[in-house]
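S.,

Sequence below, as promised.
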Amino acid sequence: MGKARPIPPLPEAVLETFRTNDKITRFLVESLDEKAWRAEPPTGKGRTVAAIVAHIHNVRHMWLTVSAKGVKCPPKVDRDKVTRAQALKALERSGRVMAEFLGPALAGDGRIKNFPQGAAAFIAYAISHEAHHRGQIAMLARQAGFALPQAVMFGMWEWGKL
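The prediction came back faster than expected:
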């Protein structure tokens, strides 16, 4: 199995968990077949993969705007125009800024403006939100005929490697 690495103090471990979640979201987006990006949902209703990914970033933007005054927030992206490369860049930036914002809250009193449950719960919320949408993306890609390779599906669960 190999040598176990030491577990960092809880605030650092929780922050690293958020960062890993961010990497998994970007890994999924990077791994998609390009044709899946704008594929219409099979029902004819709902969001495209591009729109879902834009939503993930834009929700991060919204939370940074309402909870992290003074933080240089990456701009929102247009769900109808964003390219995969632009979305990946936006996700990388918003993930980094979220981590920069959350680190001091976790190391301090745990408070997050406009999120009374605190920093740990906020991170759980953010991870749950993104995991929900990763599931939607994987399902939509499969339904549109662009199923993710097994290595990608299993890779999203390999937190130790990401």
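The two ends are 17 Å apart (CA to CA).

Coffee later?
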